[in-house]
Amino acid sequence: MSEERENLTYPLFGQAVRELAQSVADDGYEPDIILSIARGGLFVAGGLGYALDVKNLHVMNVEFYTGVGETLDMPVMLPPVPNVVDLSRRKVLIADDVADTGKTLKLVQEFCAEHVDEARSAVIYEKPHSLVACDYVWKRTDQWINFPWSVEPPVVRRDGQVSGL
Q1: Three-state DSSP class for 136?
Q2: What's the whole-model pTM score?
Q3: Residue 163 CA: distances (Å) to CA of 23, 100, 104
Q4: Which of 99, 104, 78, 113 is nearest to 145 (CA)?
Q5: CA-CA distance, 153 to 116, in Å (whole number)?
Q6: What are the tens digits of pLDDT across the range 109-154?
Q7: Which domains does the chain possess?
């Protein structure tokens, strides 16, 4: 991994999410639901929800990264897992901040595959080695990304936040 970093600021994030939403709209895709991958995807999904006028937002908690360049062996879905009845026969836009390895997005796509009419993915960043080629990408990079919501350390540090892992 290069020492250089991609730095996303809050103002640039606002521009990025609007441009990402515009690419979804220009493609003619009209999702019924935006499914965010927590935590970074929450910010993206909220912005997309407003820009695309989609009020039906769902959250899927997936744990994978434990630090800079440090991951679990495989991503793990954390409760509560979305009820598949809520997704049934819907057009879903899966939103995340980055498709790095692509393992998290792949897990969520596989979860959705049997239940939804169609699922597409939208990310701010996509890395060249991602297992998943996302449908909508704001920028491609091979650098580590400093996101504005995670560049500063937590105000408080809480033990045991990886829900029983």
Answers
A1: strand
A2: 0.86
A3: 36, 23, 17
A4: 99
A5: 37
A6: 999 998 899 999 999 999 999 999 999 999 999 999 999 998 888 8
A7: 5-146 (3.40.50.2020)
